[in-house]
Design a protein that fits this description.
With 423 residues, this protein is an alpha/beta fold. The protein contains 19 helices and 15 strands.
Amino acid sequence: MDILQDLEKRGLIHQTTDREGLEKHLAENQVTLYCGFDPTADSLHIGHLLPITMLKRFQKAGHKPIALVGGGTGMIGDPSGRTSERSLNEAHVVKGFSEKIKQQIAKLVEFDQGDNPVVARNNHDWLSNMTIIDFLRDAGKHFGINYMLAKESVSARIEQGITYTEFSYMILQSLDFLKLYEQENCTLQIGGSDQWGNITAGMELIRRSREQESDEIKVFGLTVPLITKADGTKFGKTAGGAVWLDPEKTSPYEFYQFWVNTDDRDVIKFLRYFTFISDEEMAELESEVKDQPEKRVAQRRLAEEMTKEVHSQEALEQAQKISAALFSGDIKQLTATEIKQGFKDVPTYKAAKNEIDLIELLVDASISSSKRQAREDISNGAVYINGERQQELGYVVSKEDRIGDMFTVIRRGKKKYFLIDFS
């Protein structure tokens, strides 16, 4: 099966230019392709995983991918898919974002390894050296205003308003394709479905600026679909915000749980999109979802693959350990680091490293509404310290109750957790 057939089977092709021509081009050549990543934050999020995975699929098929970090275009802001203008970041901020994103991509795709390694480029290298006169004469002259206005990324913003800065973004991204075509013989650009207008504009710039070679030029575009969830909510968003690839922003445990909580209606689609598991295993997992959905076998398999891929085998094992401890209530098996991950979003009370009467602690930490309620909670067996029920009214929380000398986890009832932080 060729690469395009595999992508179509997985539902990963939204649009292509000249489908037959692209298939022939890929079959007859080792094709250099690229995908761009603008540094709009100091981390990528899981919405970026699909294009990164696409680069890996093309690499496995023998082609040569380029991950382009938009150190230049990130200074401007892409209007595609947005209803308002982005806030412009300072140059040093974009530079810092660019370096962090390059490091993240390098971890995911392994730069400079094998016979056809993924390589990194930064469009700041060529865009920063271009004068406004160069920009207008060498690029701007090839773009008609009507042509640009017809692009969805622009037309969708006309009524709300679009600045000349954002209006020009299309030309800057087109210059990326032209530069990579000239410098790397890059003939294919891939991206999300919202990038279709920018991709085709880049192809047009290559053809118009090299008219003497027009019969020989073969460039193509391909987009992946917008990821949608069956329940109508946005993919990659949780109650706490975006799901980031940076473990400091979204812990491996939170990342693992995001995938474990995938809807039954979405899990097989996501396995096809994001993983490289075999067709045989995919069929088995599809049967599991159909016949025994309550076991969530497919969700756990998806969470395993994604956590290991983005973080590490060690991070996966840690996330699984935290999950098992929370399910069983055996909190004492966790380290302080694991407690910090697993209880990141529960109510937290900062306490001094002193012995403290349990009843007083329950009231001070707003676990129980009053001392009378605290006594009732303890007497009724509703209070657990580090997973163990505590019914002694005169109990004193001491150093022995602090995990790693830092944390004590108190549970009231079946599911209400509270973290006492002694650090």
